[in-house]
Structure formats: C-alpha cells, structure tokens
Design a protein that fits this description.
By secondary structure, the protein is an alpha+beta fold. It has helices at 14-23, 25-32, 51-59, 82-98, 101-125, 130-147, 154-165, 176-204, 212-222, 228-259, 261-275, 289-301, 333-336, 357-361, 381-398, and strands spanning 4-5, 38-40, 45-48, 65-66, 127-129, 308-312, 316-318, 321-323, 328-331, 399-403, 410-412, 418-420, 423-428. It has 15 helices and 13 strands.
C-alpha cells in the first residue's frame, strides 16, 4: 500500500506535525495510527504501525536501517565503519551471553539481598522520590551483576552520567550546552576508566565470586575476539541502558500496584505462599507467575523505550512505498502495545492476559517489544525483567509501598518513559525473617 499522509486536520503540514508531536508525543503517536500502517509525518519521517513492518525495520537494523540518534535525539555516528560495527556487535554478543538466563541464574541469588538493603533504608526514610531511589537501586544491581560484588564508584558514576545526559526541564542559555557537553564527557571518561580498572583487576585476580559478564568479556579478549576497549565500551553502555530502563519500569509497576489493590493482593498472596517469608532466589522466579505477569503487563502499558527511530541506510521498500537513504522510520512500542487489533482492552491493566495461554499465543511476533528487538535489542532486557520480578517479590514480602498522598505523577518522555514527580511511602508490612549486611 502507498504511504498515507497525515491529514491537514491533524496538524496541517510537516512542521505542524512535528510541533504536535513535541507538544504531546504519546497522544500524537496514538492518534496517527488511524491513518494507516505506514504514515508519512513529513518528507523525512515515516511511522510504522504493524508488527510485520516493525519486524522489517528492526531485523534489518545495521544493514538497510541504521541508528543515528541516541535516546536524547542527539546525532551519533550510526553508520560506523564496517569493521568498527562488526567489533561492536561482537562485544554485544559476548556480553549478551553473560546477561542471559544462565548468567542471571548464577548471580540472581544476590539480587534480593541488594534490594532488601535498599528497602530497609527507604523504610527508615519513610518517603522516597521513586525515580531517584530506583535508579540508585538498579545501578547497584546491574553494576554488581556486570562487574562483581564490589563495583566501587561505578553505581554512583552511572547516576552522575544520567544527570549529565538529561536535558534541563527549562531552556538553558546559549552558552550552557558547551558546559553540559564538557561535564558529560568528563563523567563518561571517569566511568570508562573505573570500568577499565575493574576489568583489569578481575583479569589479574580471577578468584572470588563469579562476575559472569566481565569474565566472558575477559575470555573473549584473551582469545582475540575483541579488544579491551571494546569490552569497556559494551559494559558502559549496558550499565547505562539497563539501569535507566529498569528503574523507570519499576516506578510504573509500583504505581500500578497502588492503583490496583486487588492485583497487589494477588501478588502478596503468591509471594507469601511461594516464599514463606524468605527472600526470592533465581530458582523461585518460575513459580512467581502472577508477579511475572504484573512485570510483563507493566512493560506492555509503559515500555521504557516508548519510541524508536531508524535511518534509512540504503534504498528500501516498506509497506509498498519506496524509501531513500537519509529518510527516517519511527516506531512506537507504546502505541503498538495499545493497539486493539493486537490486545483486548489495550488500555486496561490486566496482568491475567499473560497467564491465559491461548490469549498469549495469539500474539504475532514483534507485537510486544518493551526493550526493542532485532540485532540492537537492549542487552539488559532479560536482566530488567529478572530484576523487576525480584524487586517486586522482595518489596511486597516485607513492605507496603503506596503513592504519597500529595503526589500527582505525570508522563515524562524526555528520554525513556517515566512517571515524573512520583513519590512513594514505604512502611513495614511484616518483619523480615532475615537480616542483611
């Protein structure tokens, strides 16, 4: 089919469409779907709205399509020389073997203890800023998983990098971006230097608790599969992406449980029944079916990667329409996950849809992609779901987590999808059966 133009009554012309997108990104993405499977926003940008077209774009990233903008919309070198791209993908593949199911089983038993220590501190405080506290937690979880139980300054540096990358809510003076850029590069260098040092120390002193990701990268360096710098680069990118997306998704999950007390009761009953007052281990997670469904449904309604974009690298046909190099294709997991052609009552929080096997199996491929898909899928996707399930089970076992009475969270789409302004009250539900150092 030919690409449809967004009609005049939506915004009037290409510039108007872009202004409408900036004013209300999520509303615009939901609205534009009615104009076709492939919608022309302007001469440069097209939106795809079906799993089949999404699959065509994401599976062919690194060939027909490339990534040329980061999460902040800033230009990056997405074309990469072929050898540079090949080395980057080798590093991702090696790291991915560590961030897979077997790697997480090896380290999963330590996760709940980390969550419990943070939860005790939150309880002592009483009220927390959700995003700040959960980013601190997720940075610690992913840093320990990638680098071992003593990641030094890395969690704090990951948080500083996040602050440096995030644009201000208000416009800055004209000279400010250069200061922001210098600060960003300084923190990036510090983080890379600390990761490099920890990898080197692990290589010279391999004794101690296993650090699955780094150990796999060190082995690959020893075999000449990738360079030390390549190993550092993939760890840094994994740290940053996984901590931010996991924290945002956890914030949405806790807000949803507060809004749906009947679902929270189901989670609490399951955790009490399956864990009996102890903390979860990796081996417990398959039995926490309701908790896992809550995680999956949260990621459907509020996928951290709410919008993805690819640049056409070579002439392509998409949905019967010819695209040319330099044009861009956008896709929205947020909009796709709320498509009534794919999901019953798509705007409703209904975790049971994932435990109803027939409903689950009816979904086509690429209809559910909270962490993207294809060769550039987020490396921390499986880590994120395991961390979310473990955190949810740990918190519901011992604490009551509720939205603070004076807080009204709003959608924040400056980078990933977050509930801006969410504050949570943390109180004891029942005494924990163990203490943690």
């Amino acid at each position: 089919m030919a690409a449809a133009s967004v009609p005049l009554r939506l915004a009037g012309h290409g510039l108007g469409n872009r202004l409408a997108f900036e004013r209300d990104p999520l509303g615009f993405l939901l609205h534009q779907r009615q104009y076709g499977d492939l919608v022309r926003i302007d001469d440069e940008l097209y939106m795809v709205n079906t799993p089949a077209l999404v699959e065509q774009v994401l599976k062919n990233t690194n060939s027909t399509f490339s990534i040329t903008r980061d999460l902040l919309g800033e230009e990056i070198d997405g074309s990469r020389a072929s050898e540079d791209l090949a080395q980057w993908m080798r590093a991702r593949h090696v790291a991915g073997r560590g961030v897979n199911r077997s790697g997480l089983r090896a380290a999963g038993d330590r996760m709940a203890a980390v969550v419990a220590r943070h939860a005790e501190a939150w309880r002592d405080t009483g009220t927390i800023d959700a995003i700040t506290a959960l980013e601190d937690l997720s940075a610690r979880l992913i840093a320990e998983f990638c680098l071992g139980p003593d990641p030094g300054r890395v969690p704090a540096l990951v948080a500083r990098l996040q602050d440096a990358r995030l644009p201000g809510a208000l416009p800055w003076p004209g000279w400010a971006p250069s200061l922001r850029g210098r600060r960003l590069h300084r923190v990036e260098r510090e983080l890379a230097a600390d990761v490099s040092r920890l990898i080197e120390e692990r290589g010279t002193r391999p004794e101690g608790p296993a650090s699955v990701v780094v150990d796999q990268l060190i082995d690959a360096c020893g075999q000449g599969v990738l360079t030390h710098q390549g190993a550092v680069g993939v760890v840094v990118s994994t740290l940053f992406a996984a901590h931010e997306t996991t924290a945002a998704a956890l914030a949405w999950l806790l807000l949803l449980l507060d809004r749906h007390p009947q679902v929270r009761r189901q989670v609490v009953d399951e955790v009490d029944r399956e864990l009996g007052g102890r903390l979860p281990t990796a081996g417990d997670l398959p039995r926490l079916a309701i908790t896992g469904a809550v995680v999956k449904e949260t990621l459907r309604l509020y996928p951290p990667l709410w919008y993805l974009e690819r640049t056409v690298a070579e002439p392509a046909e998409l949905g019967g329409h010819r695209l040319h190099p330099g044009q861009r294709v956008g896709l929205s997991p947020f909009a796709l996950h709320r498509d009534a052609r794919l999901y019953d009552q798509p705007a409703t929080f209904h975790p049971a849809r994932w435990t109803d096997r027939p409903a689950h199996t009816r979904l086509p491929g690429y209809a559910y992609l909270p962490f993207g898909a294809g060769p550039r899928m987020c490396l921390g996707a499986h880590f994120g779901t395991v961390a979310m399930t473990t955190t949810t089970a740990t918190l519901t076992a011992g604490y009551q987590v509720t939205r603070a009475a004076d807080c009204t969270p709003t959608f924040d789409t400056r980078t990933i999808l977050q509930p801006r302004g969410l504050t949570l009250d943390i109180t004891d539900r029942a005494p924990m059966s163990r203490t943690y150092r």
